[in-house]
Amino acid sequence: MEQAERTTDLMYLSRAGTPSFPALIAHRFSDAIADRTAKALRAKRILPERMFLKKIRATGSDPHDLTYDVLFLCLYTENGRKKRGDFTVSCACSLDDAFMSTRIFSVSPLKEPYRSGESLPDDLVPNLSGDALDRAAEQILSEYCPEALTGAPVDAVKLAERIGLRVETAGSDDDLGNYGQVFFENSSDATEDPETGILKLCSVSSGTVLVRAVSKDPATDRAIRNNTVLHECVHWLLHRPAFLLYEIFDPSSRSPVTASAVQRMERQANALSPRLLLPAGPVRSRTGKLLTRYVSLSKEKRASAVIRNLCAYYGASRQLTEIRLSELGYGDLLPSRAARNTKRYEIGIMDAVNEFLRSTAFQKALRSGRYRYADNCFVLRDERFSYLTEDGSASLTDHAKRHRERCCLPFVFKRAIPSGSTGMHRRAASEPVFLSGPLPDTKALAESAAAVSRILRSLPSGFPDTLVAHMKRKHVTSEALSEASSVSVRQLARLRNGQYREIPLPTAVALCIGLKLHPILSFDLIEKAGIRLTGSIEHAGYQILLLCMADRSIYECDRFLNELGIPPLEKKERLA
Questions:
Q1: Which of 70, 285, 308, 389 is most deeply buried (CB count within 10 A of its CB)?
Q2: Residue 341: enclosing H or E segment and its boundaries?
């Protein structure tokens, strides 16, 4: 019988500069997977005639393999009858040879709509936030250090060795300030000779965690070492596939991973390493017993005794322990951290997006809809404090500049960790942390919420009719909306008539900006477009845009997105 014909959908051709795992698999293995699928079907007396590649989704990884599903639409003959149907092919490719080999486990007919579960994004950097972080930490401990879940302190080096990593100690690196680094591939690194103190270049094999000597105090060195090793273990378990993918797409770059991807990786490693070192259940249990033991002490002495005990038992720094206790609901036990830090009101766009993803308090503040991003500050949306300029940007008033504490959200700065070219570094730097700030006028907020609720209740259930309703309510013509959103008049006509297969998120966001919608109404329109927002940098950037910059021009919004490395909204003919 003739070999089955296969057609590859153009959607898997990656955009320039954007690594795509589906594009890589389609390029390297789609022919082999299609052949094996056809062979498996023929063994079941199903005779394939044509096969169309529909989807490729990475579903998970371990230290050696990345699993993925391939979805084919197949035109075939069975028992003499012509049929069509979807088939799912379960596969895995090897991380140890940088995706150069793959294995096929099973081919099965798809009887229900395809659901890939918690699939990885196309660039393989996981989307983890909130409960997903806690689940990821518990899964890692359950597999590699189960004794930690019953109360034993985590041995970071032993956990790394169980994963398959080698932990080595190097001399200090004062110039770079690196605490440590995991190497995803064979490389070289400068280390200090313990006898001579002279830096020398040595080869480092893939799977090595290099930890720097940073303190002569044993307790401090232990705390930093533990957190650093666990930080690098997270990178190896969660981010090695993404690093290898970026390396394939840009092998000539000294640091192939983009700033946006690095920020996501570092945010996850920063959040997961404390959860591994100080697991939620055991820490709550031990803290409860310690509070009972020290009940006769004053509040300050009691808190200090609890924190000292936890630090010594788990080998964690005081700062990390306090932050973890605060996350676990013991904030009232701790002294105010804000008193020991300097408040700042200016925050860069990338830092704001990262903090938005990390802090539910910051999200809650912005989702009130009462703050505007102006002069690198989140300021109350009030004419006393900010105004729109002629070029479509926003600026603080002189009064606001003199009294930022009354109208701007404050931040403090703590250590952050950027990355390097052949692996991921843990380094002492700084990043902003949101503090509770000035709240909007409650009466004005209630009136605004009531007005928006009335509009929301009056809107139709579908996207096309809702778009039409907003245009009528705002008295906006198609020509005017096209100018304000950069969505063409032809596209608007198709959107209003429901003539589309799917609506890209940038198109939906551009319409919200063009219509100058309230954030609640913007997210309602996006939801009706069938779009689900995730915890990615890109989606967080769009959310901040809609929450704090919806009254700007489309060109000002594009400048904001450009700083985040997100494609502009000003793009014609997006719809297929």
A1: 70
A2: none
The count of C-alpha atoms lying within 13 angstroms of the C-alpha of 412, restricted to the half-sphere facing its C-beta, is 11
Q: State the CB neighbour count (10 A cutoff) for residue 173.
A: 22
Q: What long-range pairs does 254-257 form, CB within 8 A, spacing at least 24?
A: 254/421, 255/419, 255/420, 255/421, 256/421, 257/419
CA 286 and chain centroid, separation: 32
DSSP string, 370-439: -EEEETTEEEES-TTTEEE-TTS-EEE-HHHHH-HHHHB--EEEE------SSEEEEE---EEEE---PP
* Cβ contacts of 568 within 8 Å, gap of 6 or more: 558, 561, 562
For 542, the token pair is 């769009």
pLDDT tens-place string over residues 427-463: 444 455 666 555 545 555 556 667 888 888 899 988 9
Which pair of tokens denotes residue 107? 């081919």
**200-to-145, 194, 421 alpha-carbon distances in Å:** 35, 11, 19
Question: In whole angstroms, what is the distance from residue 32 CA to residue 278 CA?
Answer: 46
Longest dimension (CA), the chain: 85
Is the Cα torsion angle 314, 319, 323, 329 positive or negative in sign? positive
H or E segment at 258?
none
Residue 220's Cα: distance from chain center in Å? 30
Give DSSP secondary structure letters for 55-70: EEEEEEE-SSEEEEEE
Comparing C-alpha atoms, which of 495, 496, 513 is closest to residue 504? 495
The residue to which tokens 């666990």 are assigned: 230
Q: Which long-range contacts (CB under 8 A, 24 or more apart) does 480-485 make?
A: 481/511, 481/514, 481/515, 482/514, 484/513, 484/514, 484/515, 484/553, 484/554, 485/510, 485/511, 485/513, 485/514, 485/515, 485/554, 485/569
- By CB neighbour count within 10 A (0-12 exposed, 13-18 middle, 19+ buried), where does 195 fall? exposed
Nearest to 206 by CA among 417, 422, 62: 422
Kindly report which listed range (46-50, 181-185, 401-405, 422-426) carries the lowest average pLDDT score. Answer: 422-426
| 49-61 confidence digits (pLDDT tens) | 888 988 899 988 8
Instruction: Look at the block and give the residue holding tokens 């069938």.
Output: 530
**Per-residue CA distances from 356 to 316, 365, 434, 544, 567 (Å):** 26, 10, 9, 8, 20
Q: Is the pTM of this model over 0.70?
A: no
For 73-103, how does the pLDDT look when each residue is reduced to its tens digit (9 = 90+)? 999 998 888 988 889 999 999 988 888 999 9
| Sheet with 208-212, side-by-side order of all strands | 166-170, 208-212, 178-183, 423-427
* pLDDT at res. 216: 65
Quote the mean pLDDT of the chain.
79
The rounded distance, in Å, linking the Cα atoms of 368 and 173 is: 45
State how far the Cα of 442 lies from the Cα of 356, in Å rounded to an integer.
Answer: 23
Residues 3, 328: Cα–Cα separation, whole Å: 59
Q: Which DSSP string corresponds to 14-35?
A: PPTT---HHHHHHHHHHHHHHH
Q: Which residues pair with 70 in a beta bridge?
A: 56, 89
Which three-class secondary structure state does DSSP give residue 44? Answer: coil
State the pLDDT at residue 417: 39
Cβ atoms 538, 517 nearer than 8 A: no
